[in-house]
Amino acid sequence: MNLQLHLTDDTQLRAHGFAAPTGLFAEIHWDVSLPGSPIGQGTLWGTPRAMRRLAELATQAAIQAEEEAAWQVHTAAAVRKERVA
């Protein structure tokens, strides 16, 4: 499966769980209102275990992105400081 989902701060997310004859499922539904975007809404669902793992990976990726951004700012400041000195 290939899933490409681009979330913004304006993306509306909703979540709920439900019981089906085959087991428990968790579902996330989103609405994106980006001008010109062909994909305005969608749903992702899976077992609670799979969805928790997805949440863990998303959290890890967000932390890594923040750390990378902080490192780039730090490195750029060090380079500017060297050039001035």
Total strand segments: 3
N-to-C order of helices and strands: EEEH
Discrete helix count: 1
**Terminal-residue CA separation:** 52 Å
The fraction of residues in strands falls at: 25-35%
User: What integer is the average pLDDT?
Assistant: 86
Domains (count): 2
Q: Give, in spatial order, the strands making up the sheet with the most strands.
A: 1-2-3
Shape: elongated
Query: Helix coverage percent of residues?
Result: 40-55%
Residue stretches low in confidence (pLDDT < 50, at least 5 long) are none
Give me the secondary-structure category. Answer: alpha+beta
Radius of gyration: 19 Å
Largest β-sheet summary: 3 strands, antiparallel
Describe this structure in words.
- With 85 residues, this protein is of the alpha+beta class.
- The protein folds into 2 domains: 1-46, no CATH class; 48-85.
- 44% of the residues lie in helices and 28% in strands.
- The chain has 1 helix and 3 strands.
- Strand 1 (12-20) and strand 2 form a beta hairpin.
- The radius of gyration is 19 Å and the shape is elongated.
- The relative contact order is 0.11.
Question: Which SSEs are present, and which pair or pack?
Answer:
Layout: E1 12-20, E2 23-31, E3 41-46, H1 48-84
Antiparallel strand pairs: 1-2, 2-3
